[in-house]
Amino acid sequence: MEIELQEIHDFIAAIPPFDRLQDDILNALTTAISIQYVRRGGDIPADKDAPPTLHILRQGAIAMYSGKDNLMGMLGEGDICTSFCAADVMPDFYVKATEDTLLYSIPCDQLSKLVEQDESVLHFIRHSAAQRLKEAVSDMQEQSSSNLLHTYAGDICRGELVTASPDISIQDGARLMSEHGVSSLILMEGSSPAGLVTDRDIRKRCVATGLPVDNPMHKIMTRKITSLNASESLFDALLVMTRNQVHHLPVFDDSGLKGIITTTDIMRQEGLSAVHLTSTIRKAESLEALVEASKMLPRIQLQLTNMGADLRHVGFAVTAVTGAITRRLIELAEIQLGPSPVPYAWIAAGSQARREQTSHSDQDNGLIISDKLQPGDDEWFESLARFVNDGLDACGYIYCPGDVMASNPKWRQTVSTWQGYFEKWIEQPEPMALMLSSIFFDLRVIHGKEKLLNKIRKKILVKAPKNQLF
Q1: Of 11, 258, 341, 372, whose CA is between 20 and 30 Å from 237?
Q2: What confidence score (pLDDT) does residue 429 get?
Q3: 412, 385 in Cβ contact below 8 A?
Q4: Is the pTM of this model over 0.90?
């Protein structure tokens, strides 16, 4: 097989559902694929009379619309746009490239013939992401067991570990990743990892910014690496990935760096797993899609209990899904409202902040807004809070009986106002202050600027030790 075809073959072979195809079908699919390069802002397809086509994103990003600029969703590297193949494709549906984009494309009819013997792949092609989400929820509700708790990170860290020096050039590092067929590179200083670079980092921090490729990799690497111990389960890996919104986890054992696992590795273990569901939540195009996703929570809790998971595991799993739904609601709100006038942080309190939620807990949340807030800016934040709180209620997270929610102006305030709240609770600890502090001392940022909460915490750390109650 020619080098170019081999690269296409290897890339597709790593992406569900094509990773389950037999070699002869995968080879036929590879040779049938055409490569398209679309400039930022370009239409997909460029020819409106082109036959319905499935597109696999090799590089770049696309946005999907219906009607007049009604954004339905966005896809990035490794994602598959099946919308043109779906039976229910809308007549006013269209797609634009939001970055310079490289596509692997194949007409839907031709692809269907190639995979007609594999019902699961054929089903994937002919259904939209929203339909697959609904069916994924249904499938998850029918599952009664899982092997994620009983498979360990060290068990699937096999194969060659690809590392390099932080001083290797971006071009040489990318070439090394391509040669070994990996999507990430661990950069080592001696025997210790200094950072991690993924395909996405190269695209976003180098190509998109115009950074010359002869620069060293350490210019674009992620320095704060989220990692996992080899003895931890894939369920733990799932929680870490979901909580930190990462797709690559270096794995360590007593001897040091053992390997790296990805979301694809976990998906291969579990099929339509919670990883896949959480990923789909992040791409949900509407509140209705998120409501469908939320229906799985009671079953997840029961399923985990039946598997012998402890309370910590159950709380982490439920809270991870809650966090994913909350973040997607915020993103959908920002699509409607436009960018925020000043920086902010959406915060969770109580059981969600402690990652101890059950299905379905009530809401405890708020907004910390930059002190740069100007008169009139709060209208934007009120609309955001109303959208998210109403959305969470529709997803089964009922309104807080005590109205501790961002839609309440009292809990939608600037950094300095929040600092004043905590100072009063610490200095005048009457019963109401103690009740509120029991909720808000466990704050955690779900979306937005962590530094806004850190400013408040610095004040608390100075004040709290002076009161014996804290």
Answers
A1: 11
A2: 67
A3: yes
A4: no
The tokens of 95 are what?
A: 């797609």
Residue 420 shares a structural domain with residue 322: yes
Phi, psi for residue 266 in degrees, rounded to 5: -70, -40
Residue 445: give the domain boundaries.
318-466
- The domain tally of the chain equals 3
Verify that 447 and 398 share a domain, yes or no.
yes
Cβ–Cβ under 8 Å, residues 96 and 43: yes
d(CA 279, CA 277): 5
- Split at pLDDT 50, 70, 90, the class of 170 is very high
Phi and psi, residue 2, nearest 5°? -60, 155
Task: Indicate which CATH number applies to the domain containing 97.
Answer: 2.60.120.10
Q: Where does the pLDDT of residue 407 fall: very low under 50, low under 70, confident under 90, or very high at 90 and above?
A: very high
What is the residue-wise DSSP string for 288-320? HHHHHHHTTHHHHHHHHHHTT--HHHHHHHHHH
The DSSP bridge pattern shows strands 93-97 and 80-81 to be unpaired
Helical axes 234-244 vs 311-337, angle rounded to 10°: 30
Q: What is the spatial distance between Cα 167 and Cα 178, in angstroms, rounded to a whole number? A: 18
User: How many other CB atoms sit within 10 Å of the CB of residue 106?
Assistant: 20
Q: What is the pLDDT of residues 122-165, one digit of tens each?
A: 877 776 655 555 555 455 444 433 566 778 888 887 666 889 99
Return the SS3 of 386: helix
Give the C-alpha separation, 176 to 180, whole Å. 6
Q: What's the rounded Cα separation, in Å, for the pair 186 and 452?
A: 31
| Residue 464: DSSP 8-state | G
State the pLDDT confidence band at 302, using cuts at 50, 70 and 90: low
Whether 332 and 454 map to the same domain: the answer is: yes
Distance CA 413, CA 213 (A): 44
The SS3 call for residue 285 is coil
Encode pLDDT of 186-210 as tens digits.
999 888 889 999 888 898 899 888 9
Pairing between strand 70-75 and 43-44?
Answer: unpaired
Q: State the number of CA atoms in the 13 A half-sphere of 464 facing the CB.
A: 13
One-letter amino acid of 189: E
Lowest mean pLDDT among 82-96, 142-156, 315-329, 452-466: 142-156
Burial grade of 26 (CB within 10 A; 0-12, 13-18, 19 or more): middle
Distance CA 38, CA 99 (A): 8
Query: Distance of CA 72 to CAs 63, 128, 273, 287, Å?
Result: 8, 12, 23, 11
**What is the token pair recorded at 240?**
């870490």
Q: Which two tokens stand for residue 3?
A: 């080098």
